[in-house]
Write a structure and sequence with these properties.
The protein has about 300 residues and is of the alpha/beta class. The protein has two domains: about 220 residues, Rossmann fold, CATH 3.40.50; about 60 residues, Alpha-Beta Plaits. It has eleven helices and 14 strands. The protein has a six-stranded mixed sheet with strand order 6-7-8-3-9-10. Strand 7, helix 6 and strand 8 form a beta-alpha-beta unit.
């Protein structure tokens, strides 16, 4: 569905994206992760045809993005671009008119989109009376109006409470069943791990990791993470013990919390006795998660 080949973009002397290659098949939810300034927004703007690349190519459903973006892409931006003094139905009708929808086609699309985001019962309510979660769902409805094939969700759950966030997750998971392909940006790693079929991690304009969670774990080179909190004076001894047992030092989680990657599966009952010579304040054994992989990749000292 979306194919990006050797894409680069600079602003003056600053290179924002460097040789990005990415393919998202139809019906897939793809998570694009990265710190602020990593290049996510620039990449989205290039896909949407709002910027021109220095080199490379973007195709959507086999067509060059610059010729089909408006027709094939629906965007849910970070901020709700809705009119507070209009009803839900009136907001949708306004944006539908921008896509040239009229008459029966317009009425059908409005009802379909309101139903898809579970807002039919609030169709004639003013937008400013909606909860934050409902506002986000109405923004998704706007993006669906012209039946695009690619939906870009830019941090769709930012600022939502837990209940509204779960409702949005359920809505996002339903979109591929309607034939939609999703490109999702988020700073919530739990959200990305839960929703996305594949993930790409940007760092300083480069795609430093890409694939399924299984692919990312394989690249991380470990199955479990061991987190130890010890007194400062016990850190050297802890590192020696860890080295003796082939625990791999990873990113520090605070000044007195040490992280180690473990290959294979271990239990705390096996590990705790190994550190009998140090005073453990806390010990945690976890499966490798997206958080561990992301923090490792974003570490300034990592390549």
């Amino acid at each position: 569905m979306l194919v990006i080949s050797h894409l680069s973009k600079s602003f003056g002397q600053r290179q924002v994206l460097q040789d990005i290659n990415l393919t998202i098949p139809q019906g897939q939810i793809y998570g694009l992760l990265g710190a602020n300034g990593a290049g996510k927004t620039t990449l989205i703007n290039l896909i949407c045809g709002l910027l021109k690349s220095d080199c490379g190519q973007i195709t959507i459903d086999g067509q060059r993005a610059e010729t089909c973006a408006r027709r094939l892409i629906g965007v849910v931006p970070q901020e709700n671009l809705l009119y507070a003094s209009l009803t839900c139905r009136e907001n949708l009708a306004f944006f539908a008119a921008l896509y040239g929808l009229r008459g029966v086609e317009l009425r059908k699309s409005l009802q379909q989109c309101l139903t898809a985001v579970q807002l039919s019962h609030r169709a004639d309510c003013l937008a400013h009376t909606l909860s934050g979660g409902m506002m986000r769902r109405l923004s998704v409805a706007v993006a669906l109006l012209h039946q695009p094939k690619l939906i870009i969700l830019d941090e769709p759950t930012t600022g939502l409470d837990i209940e509204a966030r779960f409702e949005m997750w359920q809505l996002i998971q339903q979109l591929p069943q309607q034939g939609k392909t999703i490109l999702l940006t988020t700073h919530l790693l739990e959200e990305a791990e839960r929703l996305c079929d594949r993930l790409g991690i940007l760092k300083q304009g480069r795609l430093v990791a890409e694939g399924t969670m299984a692919d990312l774990r394989a690249g991380f080179g470990a199955d479990q993470m061991l987190l130890l909190q010890v007194n400062a004076e016990d850190i050297p001894k802890t590192l020696v013990i860890a080295q003796q047992h082939q625990f791999i030092p990873r990113r520090h989680y605070g000044s007195e919390c040490l992280a180690f990657a473990l290959r294979g599966r271990r239990s705390l009952s096996d590990i705790v006795p190994l550190f009998a010579e140090v005073q453990l304040q806390s010990i945690t054994l976890q499966p490798v998660s997206l958080e561990h992989i992301y923090l490792e990749l974003q570490d300034p000292n990592s390549p």
